[in-house]
Write a structure and sequence with these properties.
Shape: globular
Distance between the termini: 17 Å
Strand order of the largest sheet: 3-2-1-6
Number of strands: 8
Number of helices: 3
Radius of gyration: 15 Å
Largest sheet: 4 strands, mixed
Structural class: alpha/beta
Order of helices and strands: HHEHEEEEEEE
Helix content: 25-40%
Length: about 140
């Protein structure tokens, strides 16, 4: 199966999760917190879930006292930048129709403590396949 077909199949499957989505997202968040990976983390990069993606529940991280930064997708050839948002009211539709923060001052990637990354599928070696727009 080629990668485009695999992406399409995986996206259809995740959209089919349906009503269990909220329960699974909440449990995934709890497992992340319980794992200790966020211990001491104050600056987290997250994303706004789209197309059935797992929701990283960014506002839960904000409520826990962390600053959450979201990517702003630039035109081709430019680097993604991350900007803080403290709540949904600070988000606007971006280049692909996905919510992005109102821009202020970006944080250098090196300053982030944790980066939560969306994916479509991954292989046994944990290589990530994203949406196919050069973000693999």
């Amino acid at each position: 199966m080629d990668l485009d077909a695999l992406r399409a199949r995986a996206r259809a499957a995740r959209r089919g999760i349906g009503v269990r989505r909220d329960e699974l997202d909440r449990r995934r968040y709890e497992l992340l917190v319980d794992s200790g990976l966020l211990d001491g983390a104050t600056d987290i990069a997250a994303y706004v879930a789209a197309d059935g993606e797992a929701d990283p529940l960014p506002w839960h991280h904000v409520a826990a006292g962390r600053t959450v930064y979201f990517p702003v997708v630039p035109p081709a050839g430019e680097t993604i930048s991350f900007f803080a948002a403290a709540g949904p009211s600070e988000m606007r539709p971006g280049r692909w129709g996905i919510l992005e923060p109102s821009r202020d001052t970006p944080i250098p990637v090196e300053a982030l403590d944790v980066v939560l990354v969306p994916l479509v599928v991954f292989d046994r070696q944990c290589h990530r396949a994203g949406r196919g727009r050069g973000d693999d």
